[in-house]
C-alpha cells in the first residue's frame, strides 16, 4: 500500500513499489507480460492514477525530494517528487514564491500538466516558469534540457514536456523561475447564484493581478485573490471596490501567497474522506460574457441533479499572461482559455452502483458544460476510465499526432501511461 492523499490510489493493491529510476526499469521483460500494463508514477500522490491494483508504482517522493534555491539567479531546483507546499515553504524563507495551485498537496504533476494558479494571470502557468528539466524518456534515455539551449531535434520534446510529460517521460528534476513574495488581499465568503453571476461578470474585467475562484458544493463559496505588488495601484482598488456591494464577503489581508489556505472546513468537502473514492475532470473555456445567465441556469440544473453531497463544481480563472506565447510553445494548447472549471464526485469506496451513478453525473455535467468549456485540462490522467480517449483529444487538440509520434519513439514499450 502507498501512503498518498488520493484514497483510490491509497487503497490500491500494488504489484511492486520502486523508488529509483535505473536501467532495470526500462527492461522490456518487466513490462510486456500483461496487456495494457504500464508503470504508475507518483509525485504528490493526489490523483487516482499514481497507483492501481496489480500495477507497479514508481514513487519519486523518497529519492527525488530536494529543493535548492540559487540566491543569485532566484531559480529553484526541485526533485520530481516534491510537493508544492514544501516548495513554497522553502521559498518563503527567502521571501520568494511560486504560482502554485489552490492546494499545497499536489506534486510535480501539478507543474508538468500545466499548473493553473490564482497567480497565473500575472505570472503564467507553472509550465511557463520552467527553466530546465532532467529525467528519463520512456525508453530509458537520460534527458537534460535547458530553455534557450534546445537543439532542433530536442525542440518537440521540450514543448511536449510542458503539458504532456507523463505520457513519455519521468522527470526527476525541474528548475523553475521564482517570484517575489508579495502581500495578498483575499475577498471571500458564501454567495448565492445571482451574486455569483454578478461576480463572474465583474471578474471578466479584472486586471491581471486579480483572479476569481469559486466552488459550488452544498453552498457557493468564492475567493477573489488580489496580489498587491503596487499598493498605489488604482485599477486594483477600483476593481475591489465593486465588491463592496456583497455584504457577506470578508476581506483578509495575507502577508504572502504562501500563507493562504483555500477551501474552508465549512464547505465539508469530501476530497480526503478515507471512506470514499473519487474522480475529477477539468475543463477549459473562454470568457462567458453574455452567456453568464445561461451558464448560471445550467449550473443550477447540474447541481439539482447531483446524486450525493460530495459532488461539486468549481472554477478558477486564468488568462492574462497564460494567453501569451512568449514563454515558447507547449502542449498546453488551449491558450485562449480564461476559465478552468472542474467537476468532482465521490462514492463509498466499495459501492459499485454508487460509483456508476456518480460517474454518470460527472459525464452528464461535462456534456452540459461543453458548450461553455469545450476543452480539457488534462490535470488528471483517466486511462482507467471510458472518457480517456475523448479527454486526451480535447486536451491536446492539433498537437495530438505529434504526441503520438513522441510516444511511439520514446516510449515504444508503453511503460508510461497510454495515450
Ligand atoms: C486539492 C487539489 C487542488 C488542486 N488544485 C489545482 C490547481 O489549482 N491548479 C491546477 O492546475 N491543478 C490543481 N490540481 C490538480 C493537480 O495539480 C493535478 O492533478 C496534478 O497532476 C497532481 O499532481 P501530483 O504529483 O500530486 O499527482 P500524482 O498522482 O502523484 O501524479 C499524477 C500523474 O502525473 C504524472 N507525474 C507526476 N509526477 C511526474 C514526474 N515527475 N514525471 C513524470 N510524470 C509525472 C504521472 O503520470 C502521475 O500518475 C489540484 C488537485 C487537488 C487534489
What this model shows, in words?
There is one protein chain. This protein is an alpha+beta fold. It has a domain at 184-397: Vanillyl-alcohol Oxidase, Chain A, domain 3, CATH 3.40.462.20. The chain has 12 helices and 18 strands. The strands form 4 sheets. The chain has an 8-stranded antiparallel beta sheet. The two termini are 26 Å apart. The mean pLDDT is 94. The protein binds flavin-adenine dinucleotide (FAD).
Which helices and strands, and how do they pair?
Blueprint: H1 7-10, E1 16-18, H2 28-31, E2 40-42, E3 56-59, E4 67-70, E5 75-79, H3 84-92, E6 96-97, H4 108-112, H5 120-123, E7 130-137, E8 142-146, H6 152-164, E9 169-177, E10 179-180, E11 184-191, H7 193-203, E12 210-216, E13 220-227, H8 234-241, E14 250-254, E15 276-284, H9 292-304, E16 312-317, E17 339-348, H10 352-369, E18 375-376, H11 388-396, H12 400-410
Parallel strand pairs: 1-3, 2-3
Antiparallel strand pairs: 4-5, 5-9, 6-10, 7-8, 7-9, 11-13, 11-14, 12-13, 12-16, 15-17, 15-18, 16-17
Helix pairs in contact: 7-9, 9-10
The structure holds flavin-adenine dinucleotide.
Produce a short descriptive summary.
26% of the residues lie in helices and 24% in strands. It contains 12 helices and 18 strands. The chain has helices at residues 7-10, 28-31, 84-92, 108-112, 120-123, 152-164, 193-203, 234-241, 292-304, 352-369, 388-396, 400-410; strands at 16-18, 40-42, 56-59, 67-70, 75-79, 96-97, 130-137, 142-146, 169-177, 179-180, 184-191, 210-216, 220-227, 250-254, 276-284, 312-317, 339-348, 375-376.
Amino acid at each position: 500500500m502507498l501512503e498518498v492523499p488520493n484514497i483510490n490510489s491509497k487503497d490500491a493493491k500494488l504489484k511492486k513499489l520502486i523508488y529509483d529510476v535505473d536501467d532495470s526499469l526500462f527492461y522490456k521483460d518487466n513490462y510486456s507480460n500483461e496487456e495494457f500494463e504500464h508503470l504508475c508514477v507518483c509525485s504528490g500522490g493526489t490523483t487516482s492514477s499514481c497507483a492501481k491494483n496489480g500495477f507497479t508504482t514508481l514513487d519519486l517522493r523518497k529519492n527525488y525530494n530536494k529543493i535548492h534555491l540559487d540566491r543569485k539567479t532566484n531559480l529553484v531546483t526541485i526533485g520530481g517528487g516534491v510537493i508544492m507546499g514544501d516548495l513554497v515553504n522553502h521559498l518563503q524563507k527567502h521571501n520568494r514564491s511560486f504560482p502554485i495551485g489552490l492546494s499545497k498537496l499536489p506534486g510535480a504533476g501539478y507543474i508538468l500538466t500545466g499548473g493553473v494558479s490564482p497567480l497565473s494571470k500575472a505570472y503564467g502557468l507553472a509550465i511557463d516558469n520552467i527553466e530546465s528539466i532532467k529525467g528519463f524518456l520512456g525508453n530509458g534515455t537520460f534527458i537534460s534540457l535547458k530553455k534557450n539551449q534546445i537543439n532542433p531535434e530536442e525542440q518537440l520534446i521540450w514543448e511536449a514536456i510542458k503539458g504532456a510529460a507523463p505520457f513519455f517521460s519521468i522527470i526527476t528534476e525541474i528548475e523553475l523561475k521564482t517570484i517575489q513574495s508579495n502581500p495578498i488581499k483575499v475577498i471571500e465568503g458564501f454567495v448565492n447564484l445571482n451574486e455569483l453571476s454578478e461576480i463572474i461578470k465583474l471578474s471578466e474585467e479584472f486586471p491581471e493581478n486579480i483572479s476569481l475562484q469559486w466552488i459550488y458544493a452544498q453552498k457557493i463559496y468564492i475567493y477573489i485573490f488580489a496580489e498587491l505588488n503596487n499598493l498605489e495601484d488604482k485599477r486594483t482598488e477600483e476593481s475591489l471596490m465593486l465588491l463592496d456591494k456583497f455584504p457577506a464577503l470578508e476581506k483578509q489581508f495575507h502577508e504572502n501567497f504562501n500563507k493562504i489556505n483555500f477551501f474552508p472546513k465549512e464547505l465539508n468537502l469530501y476530497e480526503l474522506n478515507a471512506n470514499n473514492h473519487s474522480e475529477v475532470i477539468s475543463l477549459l473555456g473562454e470568457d462567458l460574457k453574455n452567456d453568464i445567465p445561461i451558464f448560471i441556469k445550467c449550473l443550477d440544473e447540474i447541481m439539482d441533479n447531483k446524486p450525493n453531497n460530495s459532488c461539486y463544481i468549481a472554477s478558477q480563472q486564468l488568462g492574462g499572461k497564460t494567453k501569451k506565447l512568449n514563454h515558447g510553445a507547449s502542449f498546453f494548447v488551449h491558450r485562449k482559455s480564461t476559465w478552468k472549471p472542474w467537476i468532482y464526485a465521490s462514492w463509498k469506496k466499495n459501492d459499485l452502483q454508487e460509483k456508476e451513478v456518480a460517474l454518470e453525473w460527472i459525464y452528464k455535467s461535462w456534456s452540459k458544460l461543453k458548450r461553455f468549456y469545450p476543452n480539457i485540462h488534462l490535470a488528471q490522467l483517466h486511462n482507467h476510465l471510458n472518457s480517456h480517449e475523448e479527454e486526451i483529444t480535447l486536451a491536446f487538440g492539433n498537437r495530438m499526432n505529434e504526441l503520438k509520434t513522441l510516444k511511439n519513439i520514446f516510449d515504444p514499450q508503453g511503460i508510461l501511461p497510454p495515450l
